[in-house]
Amino acid sequence: MTAVVAALLGSAYVLGRSLVPDQTQRHATGVTTEGDGPHYADQTPEEPPTGTPTGTPTGIPTAGQSAGPSEAGQDGSGQSASGDKLFGAHTETGNARLALTFDDGPDPRYTPQVLAILREYDVKATFCVVGENAQDHPDLIQAIVADGHTLCNHSWHHDVSLGNKSADQIRADLVRTNEAIRSAVPDAPIVWYRQPGGAWTYPVVSVSQQLGMTPLHWSVDPSDWQAPGASKIAATVLAQAEPGAVVLMHDAGGDRQGTVDALRRILPQLSARYELEALPTDPT
Q1: Averages of pLDDT over each 10 residues, the chain, 284 residues
Q2: Among this protein's residues, is 122 annotated catalytic?
Q3: Which of 90, 217, 250, 251 is catalytic?
Q4: How far apart are alpha carbons 151 and 193 in whole angstroms?
Q5: pTM over 0.85
Q6: Active-site option among 103, 221, 224, 251
Q7: Long-range contacts for 78-85 (Cβ within 8 Å, ≥24 apart)?
Q8: Is position 154 annotated as part of the catalytic site?
């Protein structure tokens, strides 16, 4: 009888143990007993790409960064490949007079209109001509000189990157442009050079000076090459003009009717406030 009772008690103990969870096995999985919720230890936060500061959207410039090059192949930026260095290029007339300059011509649509307006107000200006345009329109080069305006070399085909080329390439470009001008006006002096885009470098300044030309920049830029309209062009020139200023405008290189119309608006006021001059042909 005693043996039977002992056997029953043993069976009950074994049955009870089988109904209790195995705590040792559960801890072996590495999961804590402080809850049965999701485990995040293997879910690391998404990291930004290497080199991108957290919280800075990619593709958007931060303070001090540039969104990209702004040079559009026309003059106006005043920025050179070396920042804002002009390497000695003239930005003023050197006296109280104001100089109007016209770039990228001659152009058969707009240059004659500009010449007519200047003639109407008895104003002399400086024309920075592109070699291939001078070659194509020698009659307009002759008209510019006949009206008493000054000529300026503006490279053969408005090559903004010319200053980054070798000295020999720069010299060949400027000489070719001078030859095209002189084929139309053999005796006309060419003593100024303007680098397309204002992208001055030491080599282009040095070569132009070796060829007897003085580098010419500007101090007033209405960005007329972007064709903002006559009203905006005129307002900018009138607001920024001051004694000794060199004003940058264009008579070619695109739709320049806005510049022509602006010129008719600004000349009466500029003539009343300043003496307007063509840059001298002996800039020494």
Answers
A1: 45 42 34 31 30 29 28 50 75 97 98 98 98 98 98 97 98 98 97 98 98 98 98 98 98 98 98 97 71
A2: no
A3: 250
A4: 9
A5: no
A6: 103
A7: 78/198, 78/217, 78/218, 78/221, 79/198, 79/199, 80/163, 80/198, 80/199, 80/200, 80/201, 81/163, 81/164, 81/199, 81/201, 82/200, 82/201, 85/200
A8: no
